[in-house]
Amino acid sequence: CYRLCPLMLNIPVMLRQIEAERLDEAIVTVRQALPLAGVLGRLCHHPCEQGCRRGHWDDPAAIRDMERFATDEDFRKAEPHVPSVKPATAKSVAIIGAGPVGLAAAYDLARNGHAVTVYDRRARAGGSLREVPEQTLPAAVLDAEIALLRRVGIIFKLGIEVGNEVTVESLA
Question: Is the pTM of this model over 0.85?
């Protein structure tokens, strides 16, 4: 299963941690591999489940649902887990667009020690994820993921259209 995960989540470890009720460890495992884990736990097309050995006997493990479970349990806490960040590199990155790709890139870059600022012309980060029906992706989950990105150190400049209020040259 883990070979089929495009983000290389260590699925067997996560499943063992959840089974042993070590949810704090499970969320660390999930967050080390997955940006926007609460979103992916709902929207991922879960190719890993096709490779689940258990599927040979009955049904594959509900891996995506387990990711969602661990993330939801973490967000219920007063202080959700903040992923570790490498020491600052003194490099800074401007990302134009706070949609799913921009947010995932920001997460990875920030965790690798870079200073990240995300610009978006919209008033709220999330891009096309804001258009997903509420029953599929609750706005509260997306908002919690964006709050986590802020806690990792990502700065959001929203309501700013690059090319008008800010130029690409000024970002360089």
Answer: yes
